[in-house]
Inverse folding.
């Protein structure tokens, strides 16, 4: 038996694999003790099988955990007291960042505090040059004094980021040895080891975040493992990484930055697998995950899940940039709880402010009086007030109506028109978020498959698809627990990277091959170690490169594993032009190409990559009556209400319709839809 | 036919779609551009203008590039080319015809639908690394006139017809612009982005109907006007003036250039009047401010105090009138006056003068002066790469602080300069060293240089850098050595700019505030950018913030005591009794 859990802000999701069948569960997240939420969800699974918790866990082979523990710690500042060591003369690297401002006229947003305050930044007398030469040798005598200051400051972790350590790590390595000597037992992170890429701010930021998480994540993962063991589990504990794979819990504790975006990275893994079940023709995929406060978008391009170094914790520019390659997931403040309001000039806004879980939307009846997207959905007939979340909660329609009426009066529109407008504007905001990531990843959303995940996706995923010109929407049967489903089919992965700057005009195949071979050997060690016993092992070879003098690199797959002669170099050049063309709509064959970074990744398949079928429960105990729904364009329809679990597979139906499961409700306009053989709801939008 | 009335909800959706197109254009230039000034520093803007030449959207743009300028440039395009056809594109950088300064190459594309009707004009503006000046800089302060400046001037010149580039013009540029491949890469990126905007707008028109987009344009501008009128109506009536002095330089009066602005707020008429007429005549140097920049600088000074959520479009901008005197340094110059440095130095002083006047009239929205530019670490660097022998030229963006304290809080630290509002990116040291044969020895904030106040201005940033392997030349023009950024409402001034040369012997030699500095390996320039002014009485600053800044080595214990009236003990904890004593004496 395998378990995968995903701890979200409101719910902890659990998907259980049991003899080729999946089942899913949701338990409330306990903010003060996230492991409690996991245990509660496991208890639901045990009850479902008539087992005790220790009987259930006793059958467990693997437990996979996606956690928001690390990201929450960073957001709340609840991390270790961490020092930063920088090259002398550069103490303000974390303060100065990379510039930019959310709005040039906004004097209300304060400048962000550095991740580590200056009082805990210490300069190291040394300097390496861009060409790897030692310009100033490391002054070990003065370092001894610095170490004493670190002790006096009672630091609990240390991040080290010296200039050009990625080209010549000798000083960072020596500083590591000296830290072992002077501050034994204090965890530290060396920037070139964690995140070997030029741009000192990104490296410093990654090292700082990583080091600051080490003490608490070691403790948290230890406690999770122990509590699982105490409850009867004897298998392997894996943790979901921001890179879209899983790692052993003990490895994560050594480099916890890997798990800052633990849950959202799994949505594209699941999305790719579910779309793959529907068609043999590879398609680009856009995965939209709608929660209560945020809308997360990720993509699959040419079968690959692209990574970005621009993952922000919190709001871009004012949050913290991890600078660490992570699955590209963009978030906007739009979700079921997004508040709708009219400004002084009479224009409507939806989000980014949210009613949150408490008081939540007005219809939750917990005292919220401001209208939200969920209230609009109730008033438009999208949600059944008497049967919300499979009947576990009922909704207060008069409260939703009262809240929306105030807005309607301000806009001079009817309540229904207003609610429809709130859905339309939220749809537009979500659409812009998708356009933002797809334009940056070179994907045409009109030719992509749109996957809807998260409990609230069904409210408007079809409308988003219309706006994007998408022809196919897929809502997996595990859609409401998409990340946990992705975790269950993800691979044990790791990446090794090195900076190796070379212009192709002065390319040395030999030097490149040595670099690649070194990275490959590291990958092989991983495959032989943690990856031992895998069903299969695959390697990925990429380079981060750019045209001469461009500022930003793009990641390009190497066509060959080694450069054996001019043909291989030419193949790479072509691959680079193609990728550039795809991302930016042009290529420049006259320009030199500079490779900055090299990467070899290894992926160890732990189980078959296809999702198993979900044991889906009925949404209700008796059939629901047709419902009147109003579409965002104002059309009113009587829609039949289908129970997802009872839809015959392969039967093509026509909207308008509502499809319900215990975890979600999907609104379909005039589109055709069916439950596929793989269990997903497939909605075809072509007229 | 009567125009259909769009609801507040519909306006919001269409706004999002139009802004989305402007953002998509800006993203396209940013990612595909070649020069560091463009793709590392993001010194670029994209705007959408109506056929009537009204600014509709400039999401994600630098303020100094767009508040005024797109309107003027579009009008000139119409005047010079009365018949516009699909496939046309125009290259425009003429400050005599509405551009900010010659370094801001701009592509204008009229968006013409299938029936030949002109629907919108899209604009992509990007600061170039080089534009063919007679010296290797795009900020040529010493230029007596445009002839000495030497920039190639393109007053809305047709560069594409039927979507085909006029390669004659490209060859002319390649023959004059240093590192022509770099320019050409940026040019292609800009044209590509403008064409993206054109395509998106055409498809939006087809999808929604042009009548809807026309109604939107009108009503969106009305909305902007309504928003700004509401904001102005809530301001106190009155008239005040402010001034700010640019340091003396060759070509300026010996006492420098004092910019005066008077601001009149008329809440009843819902109107603000900015008068820039009381300023000196144009100067025989490159510091003159173009009309577009003078108007924009005045608008920035006003809108900084009005709140970020008011859209910047022709509707909102129309309620602020800017008066300019012909032949004045502040926007009144004509050809052949040089506007080489029009976007930064004196323009920033215009922003300051207006901002200070606004602060006098409405202290609760007051903002101090932004630190001035451009110190050597933001200068234009050129030379030959010692390894490849290839020539290079680019503007350095090694960071600037300069943010002003305001009624709302401490400074946005990396404000860059007044016309920029903090949008520019900052070079990574490793990337700067990879692209140029230099070594950045240090980059750090200087202690005790913040504009003291209840809310502080940003401290000065000091950068030391020198060549590596071969000579480099740095052209710079650093204001703020004599005249620091002013504080407001009893706030203190920001730290001054400074520059010096560290000789190979280690000896420090002072440098003039303007120069073309040739550095040999072993030498270095020590360059200090100006800090920002403070807001409010430093004695009213929260003592906990003062203590924090002392612990973070931003200010000294002496300054905490003398300037802020905060006493700290040996453990840098607040000594409440002595602090009360210091502060009882009242403001400094």
């Amino acid at each position: 038996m395998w378990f995968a859990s995903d701890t979200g802000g409101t719910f902890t999701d659990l998907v259980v694999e049991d003899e080729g069948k999946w089942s899913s569960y949701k338990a409330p997240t306990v903010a003060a003790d996230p492991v409690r939420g996991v245990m509660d969800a496991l208890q639901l699974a045990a009850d479902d099988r008539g087992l005790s918790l220790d009987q259930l866990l006793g059958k467990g082979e693997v437990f996979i955990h996606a956690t928001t523990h690390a990201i929450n710690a960073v957001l709340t500042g609840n991390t270790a007291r961490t020092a930063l060591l920088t090259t002398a003369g550069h103490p303000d690297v974390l303060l100065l960042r990379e510039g930019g401002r959310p709005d040039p006229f906004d004097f209300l947003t304060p400048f962000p505090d550095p991740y580590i305050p200056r009082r805990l930044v210490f300069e190291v007398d040394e300097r390496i040059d861009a060409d790897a030469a030692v310009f100033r040798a490391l002054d070990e005598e003065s370092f001894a004094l610095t170490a004493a200051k670190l002790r006096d400051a009672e630091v609990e972790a240390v991040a080290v980021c010296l200039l050009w350590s990625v080209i010549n790590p000798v000083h960072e390595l020596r500083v590591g040895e000296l830290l072992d000597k002077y501050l034994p037992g204090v965890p530290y992170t060396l920037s070139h080891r964690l995140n070997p890429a030029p741009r000192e701010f990104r490296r410093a930021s990654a090292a700082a975040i990583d080091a600051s998480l080490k003490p608490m994540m070691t403790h948290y993962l230890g406690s999770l493992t122990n509590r699982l063991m105490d409850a009867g589990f004897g298998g392997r504990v894996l943790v979901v990484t921001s890179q879209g794979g899983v790692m052993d819990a003990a490895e994560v504790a050594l480099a916890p930055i890997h798990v800052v975006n633990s849950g959202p990275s799994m949505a594209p893994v699941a999305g790719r697998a579910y779309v793959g079940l529907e068609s043999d023709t590879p398609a680009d995929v856009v995965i939209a995950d709608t929660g209560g406060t945020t809308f997360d978008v990720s993509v699959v391009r040419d079968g690959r899940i692209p990574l970005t170094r621009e993952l922000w914790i919190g709001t871009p520019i004012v949050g913290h940039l991890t600078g660490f390659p992570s699955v590209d997931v963009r978030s906007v403040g739009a979700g079921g709880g997004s508040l709708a309001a009219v400004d002084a000039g009479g224009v409507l806004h939806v989000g980014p402010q949210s009613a949150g879980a408490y008081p939540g939307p007005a219809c939750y009846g917990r005292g919220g009086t401001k209208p939200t997207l969920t209230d609009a959905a109730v008033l438009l007939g999208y949600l059944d007030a008497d049967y919300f979340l499979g009947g576990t909660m009922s909704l207060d329609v008069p409260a939703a109506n009262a809240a929306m009426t105030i807005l309607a009066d301000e806009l001079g529109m009817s309540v229904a028109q207003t609610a429809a407008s709130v859905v339309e504007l939220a749809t537009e905001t979500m659409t812009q978020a998708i356009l933002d990531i797809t334009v940056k990843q070179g994907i045409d959303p009109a030719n992509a498959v749109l996957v809807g995940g998260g409990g609230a996706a069904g409210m408007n995923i079809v409308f988003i698809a219309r706006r994007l010109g998408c022809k196919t929407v897929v809502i997996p049967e595990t859609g409401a627990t998409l990340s946990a489903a992705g975790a269950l089919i993800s691979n044990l992965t790791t990446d090794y990277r090195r900076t190796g700057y070379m212009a192709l005009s002065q390319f040395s195949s030999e030097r490149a091959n040595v670099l690649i071979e070194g990275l490959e050997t590291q990958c092989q060690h991983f495959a032989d170690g943690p990856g031992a016993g895998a069903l299969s092992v695959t390697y990925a070879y990429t380079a981060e490169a750019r045209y001469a003098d461009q500022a930003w690199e793009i990641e390009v797959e190497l066509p060959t594993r080694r450069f054996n002669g001019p043909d291989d170099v030419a193949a790479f050049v072509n691959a680079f032009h193609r990728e550039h063309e795809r991302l930016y709509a042009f290529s420049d064959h006259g320009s030199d190409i500079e490779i900055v970074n090299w990467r070899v990744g290894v992926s160890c398949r732990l189980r078959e990559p296809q999702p198993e079928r979900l044991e889906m429960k009925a949404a209700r105990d008796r059939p629901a009556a047709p419902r009147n729904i109003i579409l965002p364009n104002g059309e009113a329809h009587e829609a039949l209400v289908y129970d997802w679990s009872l839809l015959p597979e392969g039967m093509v139906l026509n909207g308008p319709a509502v499809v319900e499961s215990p975890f979600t409700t999907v609104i379909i306009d005039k589109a055709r839809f069916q439950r596929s053989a793989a269990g997903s709801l497939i909605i075809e939008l072509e007229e | 036919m009567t125009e259909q009335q769009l609801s507040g909800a519909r306006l919001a959706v269409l706004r999002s779609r139009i802004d989305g197109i402007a953002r998509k254009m800006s993203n396209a230039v940013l990612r595909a551009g070649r020069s560091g000034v463009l793709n590392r520093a993001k010194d670029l803007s994209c705007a959408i203008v109506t056929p009537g030449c009204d600014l509709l959207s400039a999401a994600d743009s630098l303020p100094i590039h767009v508040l005024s300028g797109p309107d003027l440039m579009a009008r000139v395009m119409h005047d010079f080319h009365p018949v516009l056809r699909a496939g046309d594109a125009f290259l425009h950088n003429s400050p005599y015809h509405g551009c900010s300064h010659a370094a801001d190459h701009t592509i204008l594309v009229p968006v013409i639908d299938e029936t030949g009707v002109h629907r919108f004009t899209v604009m992509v503006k990007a600061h170039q690394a080089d534009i063919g000046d007679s010296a290797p800089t795009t900020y040529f302060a010493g230029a007596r006139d445009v002839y000495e400046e030497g920039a190639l001037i393109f007053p809305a010149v047709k560069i594409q017809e039927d979507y085909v580039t006029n390669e004659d013009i490209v060859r002319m540029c390649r023959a004059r612009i240093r590192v022509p491949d770099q320019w050409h890469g940026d040019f292609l990126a800009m044209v590509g982005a403008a064409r993206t905007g054109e395509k998106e707008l055409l498809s939006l028109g087809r999808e929604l109907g042009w009548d809807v987009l026309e109604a939107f344009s009108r009503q969106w501008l009305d909305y902007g006007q309504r928003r700004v009128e509401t904001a102005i109506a809530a301001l106190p009536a009155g008239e005040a003036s402010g001034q700010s002095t640019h340091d003396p330089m060759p070509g300026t009066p010996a006492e420098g250039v004092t910019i005066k602005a008077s601001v009149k707020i008329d809440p009843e008429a819902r109107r603000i009047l900015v008068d820039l007429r009381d300023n000196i005549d144009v100067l025989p140097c490159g510091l003159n401010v173009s009309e577009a920049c003078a108007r924009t600088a005045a608008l920035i000074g006003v809108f900084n105090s009005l709140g970020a959520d008011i859209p910047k479009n022709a509707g909102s901008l129309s309620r602020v009138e800017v008066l300019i005197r012909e032949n004045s340094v502040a926007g009144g110059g004509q050809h052949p006056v040089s506007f080489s440095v029009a976007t930064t130095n004196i323009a920033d002083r215009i922003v300051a003068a207006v901002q200070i006047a606004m602060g006098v009239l409405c202290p609760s929205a007051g903002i101090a002066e932004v630190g001035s530019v451009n110190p050597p670490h933001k200068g234009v660097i050129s030379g030959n790469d010692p390894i490849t022998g290839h020539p290079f030229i680019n503007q350095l963006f090694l960071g600037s602080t300069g943010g002003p304290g305001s009624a709302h809080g401490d400074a946005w630290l990396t404000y860059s300069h007044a016309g920029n509002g903090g949008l520019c990116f900052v070079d990574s040291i490793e990337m700067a060293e990879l692209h140029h044969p230099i070594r950045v020895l240090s980059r750090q904030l200087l202690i005790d240089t913040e504009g003291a106040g209840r809310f502080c201005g940003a401290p000065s940033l000091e950068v030391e850098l020198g060549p590596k392997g071969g000579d480099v030349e740095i052209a710079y023009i650093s204001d703020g050595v004599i005249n620091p950024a002013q504080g407001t409402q009893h706030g203190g001034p920001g730290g001054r700019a400074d520059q010096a040369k560290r000789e190979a012997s280690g000896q420090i030699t002072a440098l003039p505030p303007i120069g073309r500095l040739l550095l040999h390996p072993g030498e270095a320039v020590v360059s200090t950018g100006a800090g920002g002014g403070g807001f409010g009485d430093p004695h009213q600053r929260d003592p906990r913030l003062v203590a924090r800044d002392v612990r973070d080595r931003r200010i000294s214990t002496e300054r905490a005591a003398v300037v802020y009236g905060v006493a700290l003990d040996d453990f840098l904890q607040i000594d409440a009794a002595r602090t009360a004593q210091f502060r009882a004496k009242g403001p400094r």
About this structure: Residues 200-230 of chain A form the longest helix (31 residues). The radius of gyration of chain A is 26 Å. Chain A touches chain B through 73 residues (CB under 8 Å).
